[in-house]
Specification:
By secondary structure, this protein is an alpha/beta fold. It is built from five helices and eight strands; from the N terminus they run E-E-E-E-H-H-E-H-H-E-H-E-E. Helix 2 crosses helix 4 (115-123) and helix 3 packs across helix 4 (115-123).
Length: 176
């Protein structure tokens, strides 16, 4: 059984999924790969303790307050994707990493990887915002590959205080 709830946010509605103990998914409205890999049997349960914990974390995040501990997370994916998602959790608030940089970290730990494979894992992250895939940018500072949309990636990075003057959107090729 998968439990679901919706939360309001400055970015619009967020959908959360849980197995009852851990967060399985957090998606922005209209996000690519929405609810991928979830069981078909679902039930609305906004009162689950893990949803209340995730809500408290998200409220603190959007209000720029000290963050409480992360709720338990259990994203579903291959061993490679799990390793990439773990690396995403190591990117500090307000900082960015590159696909190539993540690739090098994986290779240094003995895991064969390419920037394309890392990009695929980052793009399929089922727990947006909390597992901060929005903090990954192209080697040239381009804002690429956010399943929730580049505008939302820009919003999150700005919220975190990232210096957007060095980043740009490839389609327009203009600085932010």
């Amino acid at each position: 059984m998968t439990y679901l709830t919706k939360l309001a946010s400055p970015m619009g509605p967020l959908s959360l999924a849980s197995d009852g103990d851990s967060i399985l998914g957090l998606w922005l409205e209209g996000q690519k790969y929405f609810a991928a890999g979830l069981e078909s049997e679902t039930e609305e349960r906004p009162d689950l303790p893990v949803f209340l914990q995730a809500s408290a974390w998200l409220d603190a995040y959007f209000e720029k307050r000290d963050l409480p501990p992360l709720p338990p997370l259990a994203p579903k994916g291959s061993a490679f994707r799990q390793r990439v998602w773990k690396l995403l959790l190591e990117i500090p608030l307000g900082e960015t990493a590159t696909y190539g940089g993540l690739t090098e970290k994986l290779k240094a730990s003995g895991i064969p990887a390419s920037p394309q494979a890392v990009g695929g894992a980052v793009g399929h992250n089922p727990i947006s915002i909390i597992i901060p895939c929005h903090r990954v940018v192209g080697a040239d500072g381009s804002l690429t590959g956010y399943a929730g949309g580049v505008e939302k990636k820009r919003f999150l990075l700005e919220l975190e205080g990232v210096d957007l003057s060095r980043l740009y959107t490839p389609k327009r090729g203009t600085a932010l």
